[in-house]
Task: inverse folding
């Protein structure tokens, strides 16, 4: 099914990331952001007949979509939970578009976020919660530091194979901090960074430094997907879903055939093919950035540069909102924050803002197309989207 231009994002809302949620529950955050998204879209609660939600950050996922629907006093005809790690938000929007196009719902609300303990990956219990049985049996006994170790492994191999340097990876964090300085909602928007400061921050797992690691926090985000026919009569300028693609090659990185190559190659190529556009046509990159190496591999495998050239590519460009092809203009998760599964949705909400022309000081000039990518696990499951201002 070619989904190009059949559906659009018509509502959007996002809460400011929080280190301390002040005693609020995940349900409270989701209810607040859902109400804001409805207001943005000019809809009533009764207009929403589709509900897709990512898992609760604190566990207890049994019948979670029904729990949320009950709490929000909604009675959707299309409902599900989407769990693809950091790819969940993009994947939820894809499934919302499919549901709307198939006539299963008219307006589908995609919700993500919750309360996230910043120490979630630092304890043995936290590690096992996000590990497969194979990882628990064959990796955990050797003391890995959660995702930090796995991405450090990829970064080391990329440096060995292609000559990527620590300075090139650090530059991504520096440029995204520049974007965060123009975003009043970002968690880290008080002070600029230099490459030297990034590389002088504590080395956590060689070659990854503290300032190259995403910051877990709490928060929530929401998007509403509607048909293009309905979108034209709604208050916000629609952001059209032009292309989408997904791919998965492994769960644990130890089962990847080549750890410097990712399924982004397949997910992105499917999205570009559906949209009928090329990487060179993009005006904005909104890429999952749990670590800088994630961004480099995504850029390479999505076709923005040849394999192995990601380091020099980012080194030679201004990736801030002032540059010719901006990256993560909200600051990325490295500086905006990673509010649970809503960390992945922040890349979508920022692309929507930019395409609407609502990004304030960091607004880029006349954007028409954005490439958004969600990354689940350790370069495992990928979900790619092409968003556009025009059908």
Result:
């Amino acid at each position: 099914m070619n989904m190009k231009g059949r559906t659009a994002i018509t509502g959007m809302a996002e809460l400011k990331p929080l280190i301390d949620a002040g005693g609020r529950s995940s349900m409270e955050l989701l209810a607040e952001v859902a109400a804001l998204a409805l207001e943005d879209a000019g809809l009533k609660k009764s207009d929403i007949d589709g509900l897709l939600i990512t898992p609760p950050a604190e566990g207890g996922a049994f019948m979670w979509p029904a729990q949320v629907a009950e709490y929000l006093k909604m009675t959707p005809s299309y409902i599900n939970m989407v769990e693809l790690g950091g790819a969940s938000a993009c994947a939820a929007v894809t499934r919302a578009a499919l549901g709307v196009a198939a006539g299963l719902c008219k307006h589908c609300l995609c919700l993500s976020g919750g309360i996230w303990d910043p120490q979630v990956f630092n304890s043995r219990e936290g590690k096992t919660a996000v590990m497969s049985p194979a990882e628990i049996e064959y990796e955990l006994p050797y003391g890995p530091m959660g995702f930090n170790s796995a991405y450090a492994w990829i970064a080391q191999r990329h440096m060995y194979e292609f000559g990527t340097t620590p300075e090139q990876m650090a530059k991504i964090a520096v440029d995204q901090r520049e974007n965060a300085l123009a975003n009043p909602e970002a968690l880290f928007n008080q002070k600029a960074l230099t490459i030297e400061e990034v590389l002088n921050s504590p080395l956590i797992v060689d070659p990854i430094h503290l300032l190259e690691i995403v910051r877990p926090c709490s928060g929530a985000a929401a998007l509403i997907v509607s048909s293009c026919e309905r979108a034209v009569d709604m208050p916000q300028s629609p952001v059209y879903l032009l292309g989408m693609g997904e791919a998965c090659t492994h769960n644990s990185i130890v089962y990847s055939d080549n750890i410097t190559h990712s399924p982004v190659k397949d997910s992105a190529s499917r999205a570009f093919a559906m949209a009928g556009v090329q990487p060179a046509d993009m005006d904005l990159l909104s890429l999952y950035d749990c670590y800088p190496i994630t961004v480099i591999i995504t850029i390479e495998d999505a076709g923005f540069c040849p394999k192995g050239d990601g380091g020099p590519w980012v080194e030679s460009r201004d990736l801030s909102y002032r540059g010719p092809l901006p990256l993560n203009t909200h600051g990325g998760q490295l500086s905006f924050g990673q509010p649970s599964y809503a960390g992945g949705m922040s890349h979508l909400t920022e692309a929507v803002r930019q395409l609407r022309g609502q990004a304030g000081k960091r607004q880029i000039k006349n954007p028409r197309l954005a490439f958004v990518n969600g990354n689940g696990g350790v370069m495992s499951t990928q979900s790619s989207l092409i968003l556009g201002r025009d059908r």
Summary: The CA atoms of residues 300 and 307 lie 5 Å apart. The longest strand covers residues 239-248. The chain has one domain: 7-118+215-388.
